[in-house]
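quick one before i forget lol
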Amino acid sequence: MPAELKTVHVIVKGTVQGVGLRFYTRRLAAGLGLRGLVRNLDNGDVEIEAEGEKEKLTELINSLRSGDMAGYINDLLIDWPPYRNKYGEFTIDF
């Protein structure tokens, strides 16, 4: 049975800019075979949009909650919009 493909949209709140979170997220996502982007927002948050297997997206979220960057993160606002097959790889949007 093929894996279920999903999209997740995450707003990461906390002291999350200037600490390497975007590079950490890209490394995690690429290692999980996910596609999408991560970028800083003007209000100090970081936005992540990722596509791929639902199980791998959940692993990404769990790694953000408990991995090396967890100490900088106060909250994750998570939404599951419809899957769009929008990205070819996982990138950092500068």
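fyi The helical segments are 21-31, 54-66.
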